[in-house]
Amino acid sequence: MSKEKPLTDASSTLRAKEKKEKSSKKAEKRSETSGVTKKSKKDKDDHKKERKEEKKKKKDKSAPTTTDDIPTASDEVEDVEMTTQLLNTLSETNPGSVVIKDETGDLDIKVKAKPLLGALVPFAVPLVDEKVGKKVLKGVKKAARTKTLKRGVKEVVKALRKSSPSSSSSTNNTSTLPAHIVILAADISPMDVISHLPVLCEDHGVPYVFVPSRAELGAAGSTKRPTSVVMVAREKKGRGGKEGEGKEKEKEGEGKEDWGEVYAELVKVVVKAGKGVRV
Fold first, then answer.
1. pLDDT tens per residue, the chain (279 residues)?
2. β-strands 229-233, 149-151 pairing
3. Angstrom distance (rounded) from CA 103 to CA 16
4. Which phi and psi angles does 108 have, rounded to 5°?
């Protein structure tokens, strides 16, 4: 029995040590968790104050603090002057552009883009500039209204072959106007489509001129497609039976004087453009 006593004492001491270690570990864990989760009243109050200060700073940044940030009447006048300058430059550079005001008051500018031109044919002589080209296209528009216009290579070639050959000197006389005028587009590809037309015009004494854009020529001739060549006639050939002849003559008599003046001006423009080129 004396031998068993020391064993029991040793085991009891080991158990006591283990219990102490466990209790110490639990105490450490509790102290750690309490330090993290639990906060004092002072810490909470400080945290609230910090939040309030941050909100105030944000409000101060959004609101204009100085008088420089507030828009004045002089600033509005400067804005108006800037917009007027922009609109003036827009009207000069791109005529036909539109400016629309939105519901908010902002300006929405729709710029009218100029039509893209292709490569011009090398024999495009005489080629009119933009100012003269507008006059020529205006005459083409009026010819389309009065139905004295022929469009396309086939129709123009037919009309040229039917017309009697005459000398080019007759086109320069103001008393006798030529029966036809031919307007060609200079941005045609392939160029062989219209390369024979200037020679035909010269052989038959018909004045001709080139414009830069086939799209503009087609639009002036009241067609949706681009047009390579157009012929303007001096007089309209009447169509119809005996019953409608009287009414047609009355209408022709009303618009004949106006169209005669327009045609005479168009002839002057075309002949003037070709004078500096032809020998």
1. 444 455 566 677 878 878 778 787 777 766 655 554 455 666 667 777 888 888 777 776 665 555 555 556 666 666 667 777 776 676 666 665 655 655 565 666 665 555 555 688 999 999 999 999 999 999 999 999 999 999 999 999 999 999 877 544 444 444 578 999 999 999 998 999 999 999 999 999 999 999 999 999 999 999 989 999 999 999 876 554 443 444 455 455 555 558 889 999 999 999 988 875 544
2. antiparallel
3. 86
4. -110, 110
pTM of the model: 0.54
Rounded to 10 deg, the angle between the 245-275 and 130-145 helix axes is: 170
Taking CB atoms within 8 Å and a gap of at least 24, the contacts of 43-46 are: none
